Amino acid sequence: MHDATLIKELKRKALEIRKWVIESVYRAGSGHPGGSLSIADILACLYFHEMRHNPKNPKWEDRDRLVLSKGHAAPALYAALALAGYFPVKELYNLRKIGHFLQGHPSMITPGVDMSTGSLGQGLSVGVGMALAARLDKRDYRVFVILGDGEVQEGQIWEAANAASHFRLNNLIAILDRNRLQIDGPTEEIMHDEPLALRWKAFGWEVVEIDGHDIEEILNVFHEIKHNERPTLIIAHTIKGKGVSFMEGTLSFHGKAPTHEQYIRAMSELEQEERELNG
Amino acid sequence: MVSAYVTNKMRNLRDAYSSALIELGYKNENIVVLDADLALSTKTKRFGTVFPDRFFDMGISEANMMGVAAGLATCNKIVFASTFAVFATGRCYDQIRQSIAYPCLNVKIVATHAGISVGGDGASHQMLEDIALMRVLPNMRVLAPADATEMEDVIPVIASLQGPFYVRIGRADAPIIFERHRKFRIGKAYVLRKGSDVTIIATGTMTAEALKAYDLLKKNGIEARIIHMPTIKPIDKNAVRKAAKETGAIITAEEHTIIGGLGDAVSMAMDEPVPMIRIGVSDVFGESGGARELMEKYGLTAENIAKQAKKLVKARK
């Protein structure tokens, strides 16, 4: 449905995001590569196609908003923002460095960051507030909130889910990064979370499920949900650490930077993928 | 000096809050009010009746309310979020810290039912730590108005200033102290009596008690300086230092635990320490009882302020 050039371009952007995640976390010496890599494709589709925004005017009142509620995936958000032109790409070398604006978790001091996050469970409430503001001001912007699947164990998520449905906020779209891993283990083992889709449906949400690494599916879903009359949850099935073989599906890279050797391997894998894509 | 007398006219600060909100609502369409199923008690419901589109009852979900307030504030709304002080601050500390204070968003938390004078509901509802909790947050400013007149002066001022505020008021009706409205200034101490034997610095409900204590002390030949400190943060350092220097002894009075509240703020503001007594609740939880009975049992009265002041003055002689 979408033309091949666009899909290829977005795949390229997702790879660039992944490379910068590895680069910036490696240089910072700490950070969360796993959950950053799992949302790279989604962020590429949002910032380079789906969202209405203007990097030259980060506070534009009619822009679509994005709240990265799983704030520890900041390296992926920063990469997307830098590549989109919110700030120079070279700033990504300063992730987590004292005196620079790329904080360990998103802060509104960074151009393009719509909400400071980091303490899990709060972003969906903020999204509800933004969506209500759009309605009050009769503006047609949309609000995207990216949630972690471990994060939805927080009770406040469900307070917000309930409120979003109560106010019928169809301008609110939550994307759940379903990578099935949290720090202490597999999500289902730590605290059972199925039937996930049914739970959200019971709260009055429209729920759709996609492969969160399939660019075409991501683009299609955004198109399909455009006329929903209720808030929408996109359950994006993903792989933690996606794109780097030894990080994929493992717990060990939730919150750990790669060693020098791992960094070299990760970058060469991503570069290889890039060459294949450009073939 | 500001004219202030404890009159026998009683008025509830919550009524003053809702009147001020409605007036603001007419002037500024960016004012949005949130509550968490206590809109009849906090009186925000009155705003909701006049401006139904700009009032949201979030139900019994205070944490969510604070996040929603933050989200609205990122979109240029001036948000007033109200519930009881115990829920507004204790239950939502992390939401306020992460989503409001850290990004310095334009959310005004106006909490009612603060202090022990909540009465019959007991310790679970008598918030005595809220000033402490809010004071420690960077970007947060903390106010405790003394009467309904002052409450009406405070609300438009905090709405006009960018960034978060915490305003605490009690449940009970309170005597009118200020008969005239004034241009309220954040961070300014108001000297209500000019004495020089000892200084009594009071906030919120305790300012009326401090004024009564002045009369009691005067009968004993002691001229106390009475300072009303409606802004606990940022505190008026100059007024505190001047009082310490000129009167040599300070009493603080607050309907709050003696830890972390006005007493601590005043002691931090002093450059050279002087003898000081903190009147407040002494690191215990409250209990059920009548408002006045509780104030008396826990020493939050003019009589106790006067007694402690006499002690301080005597010790210096």
Description:
The complex is a heterodimer of chains A (279) and B (317). Chain A is of the alpha/beta class and 279 residues long. Chain A has a single domain (4-278), classed as Rossmann fold. In chain A, 42% of the residues lie in helices and 12% in strands. Chain A has a five-stranded parallel β-sheet, sandwiched between helices. In chain A, strands 4-5 form a two-stranded antiparallel sheet. By secondary structure, chain B is α/β, with parallel strands linked by helices. Chain B contains 13 helices and 14 strands. In chain B, strand 13 (250-257), helix 11 and strand 14 form a beta-alpha-beta unit. At the A-B interface, helix 5 and helix 6 of A face helix 4 and helix 6 of B.
| Arithmetic mean pLDDT of chain A | 97
Question: What's the CATH first level of chain A?
Answer: Alpha Beta
- Beta percentage of chain A is 5-15%
- The overall number of domains of chain B is 2
Which strand order do you get reading across the main beta sheet of chain B? Answer: 3-2-4-5-7-6-12
Class based on secondary structure composition and strand pairing of chain A: alpha/beta
